[in-house]
Design brief:
about 15% strand, two-stranded antiparallel sheet, 4 domains, alpha+beta, five-stranded mixed sheet, elongated
């Protein structure tokens, strides 16, 4: 490979960085007084920020050459995610920043200023951090497209000037006030504006949780809030005591109920025609012992015990492999309860069959008494309606369920009833419990 000035410059930069590290390791910072040390830290962060703008010409060159296509990547962000080993979210943010702050070229080769020239200039001087830059670009993108160009330019200048003295959290407050005041008497944002800004994303956290973020257009938000709020009221007191969940946790559980309801729709299919099936991969040992984590096609890790519980509600495609990755077994989890079976369960149980629970049938899940992975069949003598809470908690708390004379009975654990006398939910049914033999 022939040498080029840009590669020589990168080599010189690497050598300078290595020399800087040697000086830092040798304790040279101790030779600086307090003011010099602070100034050094400020300058070092400025250089770090300036180096980040080297992404801009790289992104432009990859776009121009269509390099991602050569490497079988969907787009430049996807290509950079693999090349630099960064998350897709960060890769998309870097590409978006480059497109907004890099100089542009017309089809005839004429050089144009960046789309956001004031932010670009501050970024190249090392004034703006990546977080500040992302906030500024997002705020400007949120402005109505009908806003005059000079007003958009003014908003950009206000945000860039504020960023000289404010951290991203403080700058966000300025951005919010700016959005609220810049066009108070103008027309309401258009449907096109809402459609342009709509988004929904999932980001894996270190502990296996997934962070949900996004923007809902008003109609979707109204419907979503109506459903979530309607399902997130505190649970009535029961044998476990008052509902200890926070409002945020109750909203999460309400969303879980809505997702379960969608998965239970047998004929549900996505617009692309793919059925709503959850695909899981696990080892033979995990399948047999019910331990460890299964992996979805999205890379999400789910405890195997949770995965088995999902088979009560959704079509689950599973693959069992050996230690080398070879497939030992595969298939669908089970046949979902038929429409006739569900109607029979509703007629029999009336809702959640757990004693004293009042959750209606529409929000209940079909629970296999003998679990599917242990040979449980999908028939009325092995099915019972349970709300999401009792579906998760009953067996964990030591309850067992038995079908006696065609109806479900619940045997409490000893810490609730030392005699473990069977209980039944008698919601609106013409049923009289038989006397319990002592």
């Amino acid at each position: 490979m022939t040498s080029a000035p840009v590669r020589d410059s990168l080599g010189s930069l690497r050598a300078a960085v290595e020399e800087l590290f040697k000086q830092l390791d040798a304790g040279e910072l101790a030779s600086l007084d307090e003011d010099e040390l602070v100034e050094f830290a400020r300058d070092m962060e400025g250089v770090r920020r300036q180096l980040q703008t080297a992404d801009y010409p790289l992104v432009g060159e990859f776009d121009e050459r269509d390099t991602p296509e050569h490497y079988s990547a969907r787009n430049t962000a996807s290509f950079l995610s693999g090349l630099w080993r960064i998350t897709p979210h960060e890769a998309h943010a870097r590409v978006k920043e480059a497109h907004a702050l890099a100089p542009r070229t017309t089809l005839t080769g004429q050089l144009l200023d960046p789309l956001r020239p004031r932010a670009a200039a501050a970024r190249e001087l090392g004034i703006l951090s990546r977080a500040q830059t992302t906030l500024i670009l997002t705020t400007l993108d949120a402005l109505p497209r009908t806003l005059p160009v000079e007003d958009v330019d003014g908003a950009e200048q206000i945000l860039v000037d504020a960023a000289h003295a404010l951290n991203p959290i403080e700058l966000r407050n300025v951005a919010v006030r700016l959005l609220d005041t810049i066009d108070p008497d103008g027309p309401a944002p258009s449907d096109e504006h809402h459609q342009r800004r709509r988004e929904l994303g999932f980001r894996d956290e270190y502990d296996g949780m997934v962070r949900l973020s996004g923007l809902l257009e008003p109609e979707t938000a109204a419907k979503t809030q109506a459903l979530i709020n309607g399902l997130s009221a505190p649970r009535p007191d029961d044998v476990t005591g008052p509902d200890q969940r926070s409002a945020a946790q109750r909203r999460h559980d309400a969303l879980a109920q809505l997702v379960d309801l969608g998965l239970r729709a047998e004929d549900h299919a996505a617009d692309a025609g793919a059925a709503a099936m959850l695909h899981l991969t696990m080892t033979a040992e995990q399948f047999e012992n019910g331990t460890g984590h299964a992996v979805t096609t999205f890379g999400q890790r789910i405890r195997v015990a949770q995965a088995f519980r999902l088979t009560d509600q959704a079509c689950v495609g599973w693959v069992v492999h050996n230690s080398d990755g070879g497939i030992l077994n595969y298939g669908r989890s089970r046949r979902l309860a038929s429409k006739a079976q569900v109607e029979a369960l509703i007629a029999r149980d009336g809702g959640c069959a757990s004693p004293d629970c009042l959750i209606p049938a529409e929000w209940c899940e079909r629970h296999h008494i003998l679990e599917w992975q242990h040979g449980g069949e999908t028939n009325l003598n092995n099915l019972v309606l349970l709300c999401a809470y009792h579906h998760r908690r009953l067996t964990q708390h030591g309850w067992t369920i038995q079908i006696r004379n065609g109806v479900p009975w619940f045997i409490p654990p000893q810490h609730i009833d030392p005699q473990r006398r069977p209980l039944r939910n008698l919601r609106g049914l013409n049923a009289v419990p038989p006397p319990v033999r002592q």
